[in-house]
Amino acid sequence: MATIRRRLTLWYTVALAATVLAFGTALYIERRHASDRELDQRLALEADLAYRWLTQSYKVLGRIVTTSNLKPSLDPAISAYLEAARDYLIVADTSGQVLALSDVTRTLNAPALERLSAPLDTLPVVRHTGVLTLGPLNGSVRYLLIPVDSAGPAVGGLLVATPLRQASFGPTDLLRSMLFIAPVILLGAVLVGYWLAGTSLRPVEGIMDEVDAISDGTSLHRRLAVPLSGDEIARLAQTVNGMLTRLERSFASLHRFTADASHELKTPLQVLRAGVERALTHPGTPGEIIQSLDETLAQINQMTEMVENLLTLARADEGRAPLSVEESDLREVVADVAETAGMLGEDAGVSAVHAMPGSPVRLAIDRHRIREMLLNMVTNAIKYTPQGGTIALTLEEDGDGVTFTVQDSGIGIAAGDLPHIFERFWRADQARSRTGARPGTGLGLAITKWIAEAHGGTITVQSRPGRGSVFTVRLPKPPVQAA
Amino acid sequence: MKILVVEDDRTVGQYVKRGLEEQRYQADLVEDGMEGLRLASGGRYDLIVLDLRLPEMNGLEVLRTLRDRGNTTPILVLTAQDAVDFKVQALRAGADDYVTKPFAFEELLARVEALGRRPKEIRSPVLRVGELELDMETREVKRGGERIELTPKEYTVLEYLMRHAGRVMSRTLITEYAWDYHFDPGTNIVDVVINRLRKKVDSGHSQKLVHTVRGVGYVVKA
Questions:
Q1: Residue of chain A minimizing CA distance to B174
Q2: Residues of B in contact with A339 (CB under 8 A)
Q3: Are residues A17 and A141 in the same domain?
Q4: What is the SS3 assignment for A399?
Q5: Which alpha helices (DSSP H) does B97-216 contain, by range?
Q6: What is the ipTM of this complex?
């Protein structure tokens, strides 16, 4: 959920950043064009005024350029008008020699003036505009150059120029403002987006919590509350409810089927048993027949056990687990199982030890089931312990309850398998089960877990491959009644 | 002692009837509830073995009717239902005990013996095979008057073999009697117990009492 929220926020932000960037770029480009146009209009106005002044003066006076000290210059009466121009203005003859300057132009230092008048060196040229960099002090200017051919042969052209920063709120200012504002907007977008994503996902989280509570196994009859809004959330709740109904129905029929099948299988198993057992114990039955009858009986027993385990687990799923509980001394059960463990160990070349308190450990239990649970744990431990290994069964008591542990020095369980070992019909090594090297019904640990939990207890396992496993069953004592 | 068996499945019925007869009980078999109720009402039986699923009239009805009429004959119920509430229902209706299907005959026999209070002359609490003696009351085992210490499982297996002295008992029969637990195929726990028994019972004696019948099972005989 948190990741969807983060992803949504990220997408909002990326989308907004892209929008802001595109908008900003478009605005910047447009602003630059507008600013250039504005400057050009101003330059054109100024240049045309100067052009007309020069042309008119020439028409009236016939001669507007005078030469003193071999240096030609515009007649002072004429240049006085040009000197008052607001912008840079240079009038030059056809060879680029400066004839007149506006007062503003005179404020430029020599190198800057040199650069500004450079376009005039290439006269005669056509009317054109351009950008010039004058130097660190004066910055860049936009200029307009006009060839002047109707003001006598001594005049070649004129150039007007104005600093780019003259443009009102120029593109550079715009860019600076945007770079400052955009992060603020984006940060706001992240916060608002995160909040929006959280708000719109909150009903989904609510549904998830409810589904979690329902899927604990015993609450399948419950349904989600469907909001009246009729929006996507309401539809999701309806869909989940429909799924729950189908799930509940199929679970119910599965349980009924398992229970019925188990029940219907038991009677024929009894018939099978009856025939085999009679023939097996009949005095005249030949040895080789007894051998195959015995194998048949063992198979009948295995099948009976499986049917009974399935029935028990099916009932446990429905919450109707049959336990017949009576107060017992757990040490008797442990001693009984320990003796069997010793014999199984002798058969498998594994040494089996046990330890328990010296005084009675009394607890209300189903003796038969607890014995079955311990036998399952012990046979399992021996099964996965190679020759020469050890298994240990211990019983401990403390103020709150009792703890059974079965520890082995066996092959252990891979970490990835640990969550699955209590599942029905689950086997760590799929190949091995077919070869029959480590046979079993596949229900042993599932039943073991059920027995522990039916007594209000827990079963846990710790294991390291190659080092062995420890199965621990913890059964709580009933709370002491206040006298 | 006369026992009435009411069981609709003929194979199971015959198995129970013959098994009981082999233990020198008298047993009659009927296959439906009405007939069962008629015979049971006669009061000629010391014990009734009653299946709960019967044609004509189901076992629970038979049970209630008998008890309502004041019949106090001990009744052992056979059921394929092992749910606790079902057993409680049968016990409330007046059953004295129950056995869950599928059952081993030994289990049925133990219940029958407990309910029937079998007279002493039919079975003595001391089993004897040659000079080996086993007292089922004190759980003491002696050979030639000398006491032999056995663990609980060793005792249970020896008692089972001595009760069927002279008959070969298969591994599976021994396992289910002594453990009531299904071990993985290939587990030789019975061989381990027999080896221990042999050491304790037969070592130092020229006459061996515990015998292996290869591939078949074990027998105790003189």
A1: A294
A2: 151-153
A3: yes
A4: coil
A5: 105-116, 152-163, 171-178, 189-202
A6: 0.78
